[in-house]
Amino acid sequence: MHIAIAGNIGAGKTTLTKLLAKHYRWQAHYEEVLENPYLDDFYHEMERWSFNLQIYFLYNRFSQILDIQKSGKKIIQDRTIYEDAYIFAPNLHSMGLLTKRDFENYKNMFSLMEKLVKGPDIMIYLRSSISKLVENIHLRGREFENSISIDYLSRLNERYEAWVHNYDKGKIISIDVDKVNFVGDPKAFGSVINLIDKEINGLF
Predict the structure, then answer these.
(1) Domain range for residue 44?
(2) How many CB atoms lie within 10 A of CB 158?
(3) What are the catalytic residues?
(4) What CATH number does residue 151 fall under?
(5) Is 7 left (phi over 0), alpha (psi -120 to 50) or beta?
(6) For residue range 64-85, what is the model confidence (pLDDT) as tens digits?
(7) CA–CA distance, 85 with 115 (Å, rounded to integer)
(8) Which of 203, 198, 186, 197 has its CA nearest to residue 19?
(9) Which residue from 36, 55, 152 is spatially nearest to 94, judged by alpha carbons?
């Protein structure tokens, strides 16, 4: 069983991953953030470091999903390889921060990798307003994220919505984090668990 959590920067993916891993007693797989050698440079000079960052994420995400598939364990995963390929990389290309040559190279690598992996059994999409994203980003206090612009977050949100609308890799659950406070409200977290349990039961 493989559950993945998708959502924009600051949507609450890591927090929900921790909560679900604890509740179900499943293994958590987190996105490498603090260990990423390109993130700080990227947010200060996006055009220079976009390709390096995306290749780093692509490799790490591909390696992670291979480990998940080989393990045979029940896994909760923080972010997926699909978000890099369908949201972040195309967004950087459309903003003129990733050249056509580099973007085509990236897409070719992803296309090859995609043939070797499968989507999660259940995808949980955390939908969030820009104001909520900004609030969460400021609360966690990562210095390198201070330069993230509203425009950048807005562009990502638009792409997330389009991606989720056309998602066809498996079951998907959408949660509006502006309305469902799964961190501070046990009832709200319980409602999330109920949604997941319903989909898990439907798989068997």
Answers:
(1) 2-202
(2) 12
(3) 78
(4) 3.40.50.300
(5) left
(6) 999 999 998 999 999 999 999 9
(7) 14
(8) 186
(9) 152
The secondary structure of residue 142, as a DSSP letter, is -
13-24 and 186-202 helices cross at what angle (nearest 10)?
Answer: 70
The answer to whether the beta carbons of residues 29 and 77 sit under 8 Å apart is yes
Q: How many domains does the chain have?
A: 1
Model confidence, pTM: 0.91
Could you tell me the CA-to-CA distances from 97 to 109, 112, 144, 155, 168 in Å, in that order?
19, 23, 18, 13, 28
- In the structure encoding, which two tokens stand for residue 196, read together? 């997941």
Q: Contact, 68 vs 75, CB < 8 A?
A: yes
Q: Is 127 left (phi over 0), alpha (psi -120 to 50) or beta?
A: beta
